[in-house]
Amino acid sequence: MSTPERSVDRRLVLLLAVGAGVSAANMYYAQPLLDRIADDLDVSAGTAGLLVTASQIGFAVGLATLVPLGDLVARHKLIGPVLGLCALFLLGAAASPVFPVLALALLGVGLTATVAQMLVPLAGTLAADHDRGRVVGTVISGLLLGVLLARTVAGLLAAVAGWRMVFVAAAGVVTLLALVLYRTLPRLPALNPDLTYRTLLHSIGPLVREEPVLRRRMIYGALGMISFTIVWTSLSFLIAEDYSKGEAETGLLGLAGFVGALAAQGAGRLADRGWQHRSTGAFLACMLIGWVLLWFGGDSMLALILGLVILDWGIQGQNILSQSLIFALRAEARSRITTAYMTGIFVSGAIASAGSALAWSLGGWDAVSALGVGFALVGVVLWGTEHWALRRTPRKTKAADTMSTASVELGGPDGI
């Protein structure tokens, strides 16, 4: 299916952004509530942190099994039923009598929250080539706002009505979203109706092998998700133990990441202008700086807030650049490209959430911060080696590689 020549309607872009935000938010309601849930269900802080792992694993499974269906089934027929299942899992979380039931329900919530990653490639399909970075950036801005506001809303609502009411309210919002999207999403035909589901899944591996830009961006995205998960998994414990505050204050700290959502817009425009490579390096450097500030945040609320702002800015900026690039690779396979990119990210996130809980148990905030600094440093070093390699690559070779990967990453206005 060819990409439309004209820009997509702004109202539809806004709806996709809201839908992505509401869907993604479902995965993060539990994070500022971990301390309260641990007390209520009589489990340790480290065990409660595994709830984040459960939702991340569910999301990764959904990415691998549900999101590729966007290349096989008309999306307006796929998204509504998946959101309906999500609402049921949220109600199950609200009614959970014991920790294992809650973990299983959140696994299902993560599985069905992948609607967010069905809407992002849909935005890339609807957008014109010259406008794809802006459109994708807008939708991911909505996704990020949903993630950030999820913590704030969950923290405030739990302080007033208890943690279970958070999941009841979320189920109501998701049900409403399912109805609105079903009525308003474009009735686009299936992109690959002749493919079987098995063939569809088996084609993801060859996509990764054949697209070096995709592989490189999967690594950057995974490192960003690791940082994101490490900080937000342990933050509620820091606030409760070192600052003697509750889930409302933890939720309000989510607003510090608002700058990250704003960065999505700017990063999308950078992608449209072909300035991806150096901009990626700058965003990765922001991740490292953010973690250094967060390390001091164990004793200083100002350093904690500044660290969250800069870290989220770096994480989300590089994520937008990466997705804008990979959606330009193959128009007929955007859902499968999304599956490859996001599955790697959220498998990394699931491992990082468990690692963050373990680091907190072993050494508190200092251990968590050291872990975050280490992974951020890996990202900067990898970008530096890529930059060095590109400087040594002859211009003609770079141009040929750029053409073969359908990407301007190696030869945009900023050169290398």
Q: Under the CATH scheme, which class?
A: Mainly Alpha
Rg result: 20 Å
Average pLDDT taken over every residue: 81
Write down the secondary-structure element order: HHHHHHHHHHHHHHHHHH
Number of strands: 0
Percent in helix? over 70%
Instruction: Give the CA-based shape.
Output: globular
User: Could you say which structural class the secondary elements and strand pairing correspond to?
Assistant: mainly alpha
CATH architecture annotation name: Up-down Bundle
Low-confidence sequence ranges = 396-416
Largest beta sheet, briefly? none
Key attributes of the depicted protein:
416 residues, mainly alpha, Growth Hormone, Chain: A, 18 helices, 78% helix, 0% strand
Structural summary, described in words:
- The protein is mostly helical and 416 residues long.
- It has one domain (10-404): MFS general substrate transporter like domains (Growth Hormone, Chain: A, Up-down Bundle), CATH 1.20.1250.20.
- Helix content is 78%, strand content 0%.
- The chain is built from 18 helices and no strands.
- The protein has helices at 10-25, 34-40, 45-48, 50-65, 75-94, 99-112, 115-126, 132-161, 163-184, 197-202, 204-210, 212-241, 247-253, 258-273, 276-296, 301-326, 334-392, 395-404.
- The longest helix has 59 residues, at 334-392.
- The radius of gyration is 20 Å and the shape is globular.
- The two termini are 32 Å apart.
